[in-house]
């Protein structure tokens, strides 16, 4: 499944780069993703009993203000019976666009919600740490970590939580007696 989504994403990304309109593609793919996020629309486009011409007409109406090349991608995925992989394709395209721009994405867990200043400081620190110009953060709160930050950037895990530091201290004390 992911291989097909990846092929479409790669082709779309190369085309967007070649035409030098990555921003427009991202905006229009987001709009298409919103339309296709409706289970009724997706079901209609994936239904084998509905003629392709009817589906393509529907896409044309639902996505009339989306760039023709983006619409053609949706048309192609529909005709090839791959439209259910659109969300995967869109996610992969966004990751490729971020990579191209030097942007990394991070999942950040904190014990309490972040304010803007702290969020910005964490994003800047992570960007320096992973060698990127910018880090976009998606955040969640987990009181179990007690304090600090746990961040996942790509396949790197940065654990600066108080819970982990306390565990390390406890383990260290258990290993050797303190005089």
UniProtKB/TrEMBL annotation:
Entry's localization field: Cell membrane; Membrane
Membrane-protein topology: Peripheral membrane protein
Single GO MF descriptor: proton-transporting ATP synthase activity, rotational mechanism
What cellular-component terms does GO give this entry?
plasma membrane; proton-transporting ATP synthase complex
Q: In this entry, which stretches build a coiled coil?
A: 8-35
Q: Which residues form the signal peptide?
A: none
Keywords for this protein: ATP synthesis, Cell membrane, CF(1), Coiled coil, Hydrogen ion transport, Ion transport, Membrane, Transport
Domain of life, per lineage? Bacteria
Family assignment from sequence similarity = Belongs to the ATPase delta chain family.
Recorded hits in HAMAP family, A to Z, give: ATP_synth_delta_bact
Function of the protein: This protein is part of the stalk that links CF(0) to CF(1). It either transmits conformational changes from CF(0) to CF(1) or is implicated in proton conduction.
PANTHER family in the record: ATP SYNTHASE DELTA CHAIN
Self-association state and partner proteins as the record states? F-type ATPases have 2 components, F(1) - the catalytic core - and F(0) - the membrane proton channel. F(1) has five subunits: alpha(3), beta(3), gamma(1), delta(1), epsilon(1). F(0) has three main subunits: a(1), b(2) and c(10-14). The alpha and beta chains form an alternating ring which encloses part of the gamma chain. F(1) is attached to F(0) by a central stalk formed by the gamma and epsilon chains, while a peripheral stalk is formed by the delta and b chains.
By what name is this protein known?
A: ATP synthase subunit delta
- In its UniProt entry, the species of origin is given as Candidatus Lucifugimonas marina
